[in-house]
Design a protein that fits this description.
The chain contains ten helices and twelve strands. The strands form four sheets. A five-stranded antiparallel β-sheet has the order 5-4-3-8-9, with no helix packed on it. Strands 10-11-12 form a three-stranded antiparallel β-sheet, with no helix packed on it. The chain has a two-stranded antiparallel ribbon with strand order 1-2. The chain is extended.
Amino acid sequence: MYSKSSSNIWFGIDIYVCGVPVKYARKIFLTLKFNTQLSHQVLCGAKNRSNQRYSVPGSSFKSFGMSYKHLSKAGGRVLEQMAKDADIRPGYYAKLTDKTTPAFAKPTLPIVNEESRFKDIKDWKFLPGDRVVVVKRGKWRGKVSRINEHEVNTNGYILEEGPTTYVPIPKDFWQPGQATHMANIPVPLRQEDIRLVADIDDPEVPGKTKTVAVRDIVFRDSYYDENHKKVMPYRCVVGQEDLIIPWPKPEETADGELATEAQIARERTYVVDSVVKSAIPKAALLTIRNPKSKFRRGVLTAKDISKLVAPQMPLPGRKAYIEQQKKLAQQPKPTLTDEYKEKIGFHVFEHFKKKI
């Protein structure tokens, strides 16, 4: 959901220009020019109205309007240069981001580089829907909850009814039904702050299960998961790999108005009746193929011919260079004789004698 009101635009400029040195103000203004659409989203759904998270594109210099690069080449160059500056001076930009970003959009975990971000399920280990227990010290220690979403920029996990922080929210970013400037937003946790929770058979009471916290997991082999519709590895408990913890089922998404039923999509409506004759009418070919395309001109340019004809080996210029190097190698190399050494020493002595 995007907001395009002018108040949002100026609100963003006030945030990022305030307290910034003059030499960087123009850069930031140009960046905001391509990033005037400020967005907000609810990460924890309607189950818990207090668990709302708001985000402003550009809360870090690494993420300044990267989705708008296609709008302008100049804007793309500015963003790339700012990303390079952020890599060169990470400490400075981290302090600047912390100083100029509002509390509701400020990440509670440090933003990680692209190379260090989790890329697949083996890196994440836990998926949305998994039950985990908080092991981090504090009032939330021992809290069992479900993972609601991944925070990709920080490698964090957002939990349902998990840790929150109480921050002020500008009115432009209020959620439907919100009536106050203060609200709770979820705080992501690191992977080492949580442990996976699973139900296993209780050996002491046959036929019943007990809930345990898994210290760590390891991945073994792979199988096709019908719920996720892809090949996934088995999640095994470290030290007892015969215990396999299944992956959580993804949330079912309701079909939209334009969705097509699977039975209709699988229905075959066209059958090829000839291998020689095209099913497309000749008069309709011009509407689906560009007759002026360079691939249909039927004429080869000099550049096309040069790509198709292999060059002579070695090339004339390279051949002349090789011959020149051979002649230079055959020339006798000069040697430094005693006579030349005496002349060099005499000139050096005369040079220093004049300075004394």
